[in-house]
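User: structure tokens for this one?
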Amino acid sequence: MFKIFFISIITVVTVNAQLTIPALSPTSKTTQTVGLTEIKIEYSRPSKRDRIIFGENGIVPYNDLWRTGANAATKISFTDDVTIFETIIKKGSYAILTKPGKNTWEIYFYTYKSGNWNTYVDQVPIATFNAKHIKLNEILETFLIYIDQITLDSSQLIFTWDQFKIALPLKFDTHKKTMVSIEKTISGPSNFDYFQAALYLHEAQTDLDKALAYIQKVTKAENPLFFQVYRESLILADLDKKPEAIVAAKRSLELSKKAKNKDFIRLNEKNIKKWSR
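Assistant:
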């Protein structure tokens, strides 16, 4: 009898151990590259579920310190230094706590040490930022942190939930890091390296003369590709060298036809027409 009872207990425990339920605030891991910098955000995402979120009667009262999510501390990591407003944040990992207000938020960065957000409450943050509360026209059910407004050297860190949105401007020294890489590589570059260097300088609209010099090392070499000659035409046009740009575009057009690339055929024909006016 005892043996049967013992087996029954084991069976019940085993069944209970297999129980799986959905998380009310599921974890999220977001990775975004801005320029040459990787940003990783790890946090939990609570949902509104018909509750008042912010304010006197909300689950997050105004001017109360909030973990900025749920469960563990919200963590953000940068592979390079980042400037937020005028403050430089060194590369590394940080816990983010916030103090939502009626019109503005205070955002606190702490050197990340633990997933327990309470360990940061009595610490002095390494940086504090103030950002205005933007009212949204629609209701966002689930809390979200993401990177938006991405350029080669900047972006925004967005916090949004319910009918609010907070944006922190992020700035990276992409150009300096890229130029170091370019100069290092150019000491023994391939045509691909020259093309990549020209592509970056042209897209950044920086030092177009150097961009032209780099791309022409490729286009004047043996067997350039249609998209490389196409880039040369764009750089020439931006340098206001339209006759030369047209010559390059016609050359790219012929190469595009040989490669049977309809997209670049169309782009070259459009540019030739535009620059010939």
